[in-house]
Amino acid sequence: MQIIGHRGARGEAPENTLGGFQYLRDLGVRAVEFDIRQRHNGQLVVIHDDNFLRTTGISGSVYEENLDLQHYDHRENWQNWTQAEYTPTLAQVLNFLNDFNHIELEVKAVNDQADADKLTHALAEHLNGLETQVTITSFDTKILHSLQQQKSVFKRGLLIEEDIKAKTIEIAQQLGCCHIGWMDQLATPDMLQLSHQAKLNISVWTVNHVERAKQLRDEGVQGLITDYPTLMLEQL
To answer: Which class for 141: exposed (0-12), middle (13-18), buried (19 or more C-beta within 10 A)?
Structure first.
């Protein structure tokens, strides 16, 4: 089972930042999950929320026009972190992760299919040459449908946080997914077994307790997404 750093290593370093990704690399982990959004000017940025408030302490929409990313330092909850951590672009992050062997890139929800198509086209340009490392994941079926229509060469995965049980597998298969990302509470033995039977690669998020991690390992889960990679490296 592969240990995958959640938003870098969000329990141990500022999330979705170059410093957080460097922290993960320094641990020896080469598998990561992070989030992207597309601003109105087409720029792809790495951030979970659509507002900067939680991670920077400064309110402001990611989609605001003429935004200066250097204004938002994501150390709001990391007062002892010495280096400023501004919102990175996807290009910066991918350049930084050039030696990673597994990248789960979560695309956040968009308003409509046109936005999904615009985003996925831009994404394909950024990801050129990373076909073996990258899996594009999303809760938003519009994103996955767009990739399917484009006959994207990238692996894609459905993320699920609704308790719709076996219908999840059906949706993933309809969208041509080879991967499924279960929220931990929904990753029951039955659902994991169905995922295996459907030959879907499985990751489970967010797993921060060692005993649960061991249980998932024993059930054949391929990827463990965790806020605390140090803990998992020591205990698994």
So the answer is: middle
**For residue range 57-105, what is the model confidence (pLDDT) as tens digits?**
999 999 998 889 999 999 999 999 999 999 999 999 999 999 999 999 9
Straight-line distance from the first to the last Cα atom of the chain, in angstroms, rounded to the nearest whole number:
9
pLDDT by residue (tens digit) across 190-211?
A: 999 999 999 999 999 999 999 9
CA angle (226, 216, 176) in 5-degree steps: 85
Whether residue 39 contacts residue 85, with contact meaning beta carbons closer than 8 Å, is answered with no
pLDDT of residue 66: 86
pLDDT for 131-180, tens place per residue? Answer: 999 999 999 999 999 999 999 999 999 999 999 999 999 999 999 999 99
Instruction: State the DSSP string of the chain.
Output: -EEEEETTTTTTS-TTSHHHHHHHHHHT--EEEEEEEE-TTS-EEE-SSSBSHHHHS---BTT-TT--GGG-BS-TT-TT--S--BPPBHHHHHHHTTT-SEEEEEEPP-SSHHHHHHHHHHHHHHTTT-TTTEEEEES-HHHHHHHHHTT-SSEEEEEE-S--TTHHHHHHHHTT-SEEEEEGGG--HHHHHHHHHTT-EEEEE----HHHHHHHHHTT-SEEEES-HHHHHHH-
189-197 vs 167-174: helix crossing angle, rounded to 10: 30
Residues 6+ apart with CB under 8 A from 199: 178
Residue type at 131? E
